[in-house]
Amino acid sequence: MTSQPTSSSFKAWLHAGLLHIVFFNTWGVANGYGIFQQYYSQTLTESASSISWIGGLQIFLLFSVGVITGRLTDAGYFRPIFAFGVFLQVLALFMTSLCTTYWQIFLAQSVCLGLGNGCTFCPALAILSQYFKKYRAFAVGLAAAGAAVGGLVYPVLINWLIFYDNVGFPWTLRTMGFVMLATYIPCLIWFEPRLPPRRSGPWIDKSAFTELPFILFSMSMFFNFWGLYFAFFYLGTYARDQVGISEPIYLLMILNGVGIFGRIAPSLIADKWTGMLNALIPLSFCSSLLVYCWAAVKSTGGLYVFAVIYGFAAAALQALFPAVATTMTPDPSRTGTRVGMILGIVSFANLTGPAICGAIINKSNGRYLEAEMFAASSILVGAFMALAARIAKTGFVLKVKV
């Protein structure tokens, strides 16, 4: 074990690749939930809001479980927690393949898969931050590109097997499970902490709540994610119901596919020139503006343009968020705890945001305008709070890399 991160070592970049796989199987599945939203709206007799709770709770648990698993990672229990998470994720997909009713799908795909996601994602993110200091944003961005790859691969796989090959829903989910298990094998072999464990210490670092930048950044990400996933969940149903696009899967593919570049390029720029928080702020404002503009898009071509631009901006925001979160502590041994706390706060936005948007759509008799305004305004509030966090951290100094 070395006292300083070794960003240039093969082992450090190997862990960036391993975290790429974790993003692929956690955020990638979450970002691709739109295909499930579309499928369940056709096969279940439930409202759009009720169906969105499946994806919303899944993402909520992905984040909120980090409060526990982050501290356990700091305490030296990374390997058993991570392995347990992989087991839960694969089990969830196989159990979902047996489900026929809403409540069964809710328990398997929301609760079980969400718990598994939380046991793998936060610990893996905390471990990567131990290996990088100089190139941390780029390393996290490279890893976060796995979310875009997963958000592209899994929906294509689901769409092809269900709608074209007529394999059926059960074997489609089992195929997902086999893919997930196979890709996790390298992680189970090579993922390991760099720092010695910190056995003692609180589950929640109360000193963080005395630091204004931490508070403002946490609230900023809450409001950003309150509206961010609206497009990922509802763009497909909007395209089908409002514009008349018969195969909205291609929109979802583009929305997630451009995220590969959206996660890597801004992270590289942040490391080399601007700093992570400085790069995140304009991307947050841009994401809000794009969702406001979505309300004026009524054509097929316009939706494809929106999917490209928003997919890039939202992906960059998703990638920079965990990178900035790992810097919100002066003590590297508490990274897991601090990251877990931020994820726990943001998790409530992921739980309620898509469901609120679905309820707004139902109350508006199927119109999306009011939900679009809610999502865009939420992201806008988050952008201003991110700006406030930057000012609290550096003052009104303009040319500072942070």
TrEMBL record:
Range of residues in the leader sequence: none
Keyword terms, alphabetized: Glycoprotein, Membrane, Transmembrane, Transmembrane helix
GO cellular component term, pick one: membrane
GO MF entry, a single one: transmembrane transporter activity
Transmembrane segments: 12-30, 50-70, 77-96, 102-128, 140-163, 169-191, 212-236, 248-265, 277-297, 303-327, 339-361, 373-392
Membrane topology: Multi-pass membrane protein
Domain Major facilitator superfamily (MFS) profile residues, every copy: 12-401
Subcellular localization, as worded in the UniProt entry: Membrane
Chief localisation class: membrane
Source taxon at top rank: Eukaryota
Recorded family membership: Belongs to the major facilitator superfamily. Monocarboxylate porter (TC 2.A.1.13) family.
Official protein name in the record: Major facilitator superfamily (MFS) profile domain-containing protein
